[in-house]
Backbone:
């Protein structure tokens, strides 16, 4: 008999948390044992007998939640954004003390988004210019989005490795920041608009041509297969996995 997957959801009353509560409740092979919101004591996770934690909270809280899970031997599936290199390094150090634990940090759980990011990283070295436009609902707390940051990091790494110079815009004067944030050498523009959920375009420009790689999440159900895959796979991937692509076979 396989080991039960007993799931505690943190941020359970949020937009993503509520969708995850439904998805986990509907999955016959997963047991939802705890739902925590802001102010709840993390001890409740242990009291409920959880083996896995899903973190869908806020960037300021996620690290504390995940470190608590790892210290207590629980696997974690994390969708919350804001995991910069300093936080990831502290998480790696904690995981080194608990080598059996698997943590997935997934900037985006939607399969189409994971593929779009992978395609963009692969294409990036062939184009002179690359910029990212991310578009989200106006209640999003962070900008740029975690997906855009991760996409820019992977594009930046691919271009560095290939020796591609920075996208050309040296003569543009930008006193008001209209050129957006710069992440790993890539300009990232954030739109917040009523009616949107989560969308991203990577614009790749060469002489006389443009390639646009666009992904749209119209509904948060798009994220749920990735959350469930994370829960089913985390224990099979000890240590830190950054990006759902680490659990998929995307090939070259
Ligand atoms: N990886 C992915 O595919 C996706 C990631 N996200 C990210 O997930 C996070 C949550 O997004 P939304 O659900 O839209 O936000 P939300 O604001 O609707 O939900 C966050 C919830 O966390 C709760 N919370 C705050 N501190 C907490 C704590 N210490 N313990 C437990 N709960 C706590 C809040 O009260 C709120 O209910 C954001 O960082 C967002 O960027 C969102 C969509 C998809
Ligand atoms: O807050 C959101 O909504 C989303 N957050 C994640 C991000 O910042 O990339 C994933 C997705 O874009 C939706």
Residues:
């Amino acid at each position: 008999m396989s080991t039960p997957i007993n799931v505690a959801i943190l941020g359970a009353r949020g937009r993503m948390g509520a969708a995850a509560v439904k998805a986990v409740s509907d999955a016959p092979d997963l047991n939802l044992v705890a739902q925590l919101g802001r102010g709840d004591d993390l001890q409740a996770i242990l009291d409920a007998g959880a083996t896995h934690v899903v973190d869908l909270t806020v960037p300021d809280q996620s690290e504390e939640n995940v470190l608590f899970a790892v210290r207590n031997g629980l696997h974690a599936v994390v969708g919350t954004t804001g995991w910069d290199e300093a936080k990831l390094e502290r998480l790696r150090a904690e995981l080194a003390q608990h080598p059996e634990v698997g943590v997935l940090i997934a900037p985006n759980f939607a399969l189409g988004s994971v593929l779009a990011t992978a395609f963009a990283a692969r294409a990036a070295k062939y184009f002179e210019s690359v910029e990212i436009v991310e578009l989200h609902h106006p209640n999003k707390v962070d900008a740029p989005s975690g997906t855009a940051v991760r996409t820019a990091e992977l594009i930046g790494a691919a271009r560095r490795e290939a020796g591609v110079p920075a996208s050309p815009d040296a003569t543009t004067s930008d006193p008001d920041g209209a050129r957006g944030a710069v992440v790993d050498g890539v300009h990232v523009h954030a739109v917040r608009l009523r009616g949107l959920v989560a969308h991203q375009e990577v614009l790749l420009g060469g002489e006389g041509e443009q390639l646009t790689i666009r992904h749209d999440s119209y509904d948060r159900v798009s994220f749920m297969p990735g959350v469930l895959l994370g829960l089913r796979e985390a224990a099979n991937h000890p240590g830190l996995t950054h990006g759902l692509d680490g659990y998929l076979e995307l090939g070259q």
Remarks:
- The pocket of NAI (ligand 1) is lined by residues 10-11, 13-17, 36-38, 56-59, 61, 79-81, 106-109, 146, 223 (CB under 6 Å).
